[in-house]
Specification:
With 349 residues, the protein is of the alpha/beta class. It is 36% helix and 26% strand. The strands form 4 sheets. A 10-stranded mixed sheet has the order 10-6-9-3-2-11-12-1-16-15, with helices on both faces. Strands 4-5 form a two-stranded antiparallel sheet. It is globular.
Length: 349
């Protein structure tokens, strides 16, 4: 059984979450120097609006990151030793006054986590290519006046302390939480080509426009990559509840916090899914694996192992103990959802 809570509030104060009680943080914060977030940042520090009005772009940029840094410090308090932080962030390009420049958000976040003593792990580029004919910036075909178009964002990965040691029941849960060989090869690549929030599992286009949330595939991968079943995952900028939904599907607990009560209402509505819609994600994961095995040459199939829980073939010995469960029941009480699970059975719809 897992629990999934949405809290309305500013994540610079998460006093209702105990020290060291979170195993993984997966989030996508407001991006400094993106216009849609100016009002939100300025409401917390009016000097930011003054800087923008007066053309002091760099000053506004650093003040916006001071706001985020207060939240990263609070995240550090609630994160367990050896826990991971995964942050989806994009850099910004903007003209302030008569000066166009890049504002490197990912650099500021990396520097903050280094200051807090974290290990910086290899990051992932999330490529969001656009085919729009007007996507290029600057002076058209003339040299020395055009600018490279940004079509990627970063997924930054940090670890607090050293490697996590798994003992006893946690060791068994880790084995059951393993991912498939072919998933490993895709998920742990440094380039992800995933389209935006086109999946039907998230409702409200208006909410996406206001929140710029990432697609479900991103937190779903990260949750499975950096946590085990039963862990607690925090999203301090929960937005549309995408990380929470990924945790519901993946048998992890989750806590989502957002300062905007209208957005949290949408998040709670998004989490109130038809159970079949959530189980479809699990079903597609299994089907994708079976298709991968089916396409292997016979000589490679003969060298595969048999998964003990589900009876299908797997590529490596580390996949033998994978145990995938589907949701059997979802209950809601106020701002908390509780999920129950059962063994995945391919005969069930």
């Amino acid at each position: 059984m897992t629990s999934h809570e949405i809290i309305i509030g500013n994540s610079n104060d998460m006093s209702n979450i105990e020290d060291g009680s979170v195993n993984l943080i997966v989030t996508s914060p407001p991006y400094p120097m993106i216009k849609m977030w100016d009002e939100m940042f300025s409401s917390q520090n009016p000097e930011i609006k003054k800087d923008l009005d007066e053309g002091n772009g760099n000053s506004a940029f650093f003040k916006m990151h001071e706001i985020l840094n207060s939240i990263w410090r609070e995240c550090d308090r609630v994160l367990s030793e050896n826990g991971f932080v995964c942050i989806n962030i994009g850099d910004a390009t903007r003209t302030i006054g008569d000066k166009f420049q890049l504002y490197s958000n990912h650099t500021q976040i990396i520097n903050q986590f280094i200051d807090m003593g974290y290990s910086v792990l290899p990051d992932i580029l999330w490529r969001k290519q656009s085919n729009a004919p007007n996507k290029f910036m600057g002076s058209g075909m003339y040299p020395a006046g055009a600018y490279v178009t940004y079509e990627h964002e970063y997924i930054l990965v940090f670890r607090k302390g050293g490697k996590r040691i798994f003992k006893g029941e946690e060791k068994s849960l880790r084995q059951k939480s393993a991912f498939f060989w072919e998933e490993r090869n895709i998920w742990f690549s440094d380039l992800w080509e995933i389209k935006g929030t086109s999946q039907n599992i998230l409702s409200s286009k208006a909410g996406r426009d206001r929140n710029a949330s990432f697609p479900l595939e991103i937190p779903y991968r990260l949750v499975n990559m950096y946590s085990i079943k039963g862990d607690t995952v925090l999203d301090p900028f929960t937005g549309l509840g995408t990380t929470n939904i990924a945790c519901m599907i993946s048998n992890r607990n989750s806590i989502g916090i957002d300062i905007d009560n209208n957005i949290t209402d949408i998040a709670l509505n998004n989490m109130n899914q038809n159970i079949n819609a959530l189980n479809d994600v699990i079903k597609k994961r299994i089907e994708s694996h079976l298709e991968f095995i089916d396409l292997l040459p016979e000589e490679k199939k003969s060298k595969c192992y048999t998964n003990t829980s589900h009876g299908f073939l797997v590529k490596t010995k580390q996949e033998v103990s994978i145990e995938i469960e589907r949701l059997s029941n979802i209950k809601k009480k106020e701002n908390v959802y509780t999920c129950e699970y059962e063994k995945y059975d391919s005969s069930k719809k």
